[in-house]
Write a structure and sequence with these properties.
Elements: H1 6-27, H2 32-35, H3 40-53, H4 60-77, H5 84-96, H6 100-107, H7 111-136, E1 155-157, E2 160-161, H8 170-189, H9 196-212, H10 216-235, H11 240-257, H12 261-281, H13 283-301, H14 317-324, H15 335-371, H16 375-390, H17 396-424
Antiparallel strand pairs: 1-2
Helix pairs in contact: 1-3, 4-5, 4-15, 5-14, 6-17, 7-8, 7-9, 8-9, 8-10, 8-16, 8-17, 9-11, 10-16, 12-13, 13-15, 15-16, 15-17, 16-17
């Protein structure tokens, strides 16, 4: 009988996150709806093994999350016209996966963390090549089919789709590229962990993928990672030479790749996409108004929301499909709006508050690690902070990258603290076990 360790199951969660879109689009599209929750049994198994080994994270974060989650579940269950299946799906969306952050943070340190980071970097170029092929193919090509085996991907501009790679939609590719970019820059800022060939391999992949993505989301997530690089160097100014090297190497690759037609076409389509969106939104001010509305609109809705809300799961597209037979947003598409409309102002604010406070805490811990000379936490935080704060976790892939990204950020923080304690005891450890 094969027995999986908790770490084995975390790796399975990761691989399903990377390839569940491929399963839903190309391999078994007839099971697309079921595959939305393919990682749920893995999460439950992880919890069972962690309970058995005594490593389940009983801390203030998980305890508060469970209390709020159970209250949301109970209140939703007793609402008029409550649908048990929809309520359970809503509980799964808001609560089920989040404790996994702390298990990943506890177990994936040291050599396990480094192995995971190297694996992510190895995946960047193959996924980038797939994205380029999707970008160059016709929208109705088999390679651009949507989840479920019907329809096509979201169009970007000029007849080109926004290529999702192995993921169901472009949002998954954007989230993966941000995480991959965070690891790549952190390895550049560190020494003796990856070879020059491996770093070049990843840099070429990132350049290709971003150029053909036609996705402002991918660009903004990557910008946050680069911003965290500047934060790190601000506190560790002796690393400025490495940062300048990253910028120069990135610029060099970009210039070289511009000689390829697909890169020129991708950048042209991206430019058209930004210009078109700018015209619709009213320029830069319109774009920022749109971003701010995700935070302001929920406040404006507060007085119009029933105290108990409309029930967990009703704001998700899957819940809407179970209720109406159509995959639409019955309540709201914005994340904070969804949470408030589903659970009401009291429990909704409690859940949003949990996410905000945990994001702030993780950011502060990452900043402390950066000041101590460890780049991984702050860079990975750059890749996952928006998902934690306001990411639409009703999307299965976004939920997965929120959990995995925050978990790896916490793992890097934990390793940093462990290593600092050992340094205080004047012990030396090999570079292969050092993060940063």
């Amino acid at each position: 009988m094969i027995r999986f360790t908790t770490r084995d199951l975390i790796w399975l969660y990761f691989w399903l996150l990377i390839f569940e879109g491929a399963l839903r689009k190309w391999i078994v599209p007839q099971f697309s709806s079921i595959l939305l929750i393919i990682r749920d049994p893995v999460v439950i198994l992880i919890y069972l093994t962690s309970f058995r080994s005594g490593i389940f994270p009983w801390n203030i974060w998980t305890l508060i999350l469970m209390v709020v989650g159970i209250l949301m579940f109970m209140v939703s269950l007793f609402l008029p016209e409550s649908n048990l299946v929809v309520v359970c799906y809503g509980f799964r969306t808001n609560v089920l996966h989040l404790p996994l952050i702390f298990i990943i943070g506890k177990l994936m340190t040291g050599e396990h963390f480094l192995k995971m980071g190297k694996t992510i970097i190895k995946l960047i170029l193959p996924i980038a090549i797939l994205m380029a092929a999707q970008f160059l193919s016709a929208p109705d090509s088999w390679i651009n089919i949507a989840a479920g085996g019907e329809g096509s991907q979201i169009e970007g501009t000029a007849g080109n789709i926004r290529p999702p790679g192995t993921f169901s939609y472009i949002t998954g590719a954007a989230e993966f590229l941000a995480l991959g970019g965070a690891f790549l820059i952190a390895y550049f800022l560190s020494s003796g962990i990856l070879s020059t060939r491996q770093l070049v391999y990843g840099a070429v992949g990132i350049s290709i993928a971003l150029s053909v993505s036609i996705s402002r989301l991918a660009l903004s997530y990557s910008f946050l990672v680069v911003l965290m690089m500047f934060v790190y160097v601000f506190f560790r100014p002796h690393n400025i030479n490495r940062m300048v090297g990253i910028v120069m190497i990135g610029g060099l690759f970009f210039v070289i790749l511009l000689n390829f037609d697909f890169m020129q076409k991708g950048l042209s389509a991206f430019s058209d996409r930004i210009e078109g969106a700018s015209q619709v939104e009213g320029g830069a001010s319109g774009f920022f108004d749109r971003v701010l509305s995700d935070y302001i609109t929920p406040i404006q809705l507060m007085t119009d929301i029933p105290l108990n809300g409309y029930g967990l799961g009703n704001g998700t597209s899957a819940g809407a499909h179970l209720i109406s037979g159509e995959s639409v947003f019955l309540l709201a598409e914005g994340e904070w709006n969804r949470v408030l409309l589903e659970s009401g102002p009291i429990l909704g604010i409690a859940f949003i508050g949990w996410r905000v406070l945990f994001t702030l805490w993780l950011g502060l811990m990452s900043l402390q690690a950066a000041i101590s000379g460890y780049p991984f936490p702050i860079l990975i935080f750059g890749a996952c902070n928006q998902l934690l704060l306001i990411g639409q976790i009703s999307r299965a892939t976004t939920l997965g990258f929120l959990v995995f990204g925050a978990g790896m950020c916490l793992a890097a923080i934990n390793h940093c603290h462990f290593d600092l304690q050992k340094r205080a005891q004047n012990r030396k450890y090999p570079v292969s076990n050092k993060i940063g």
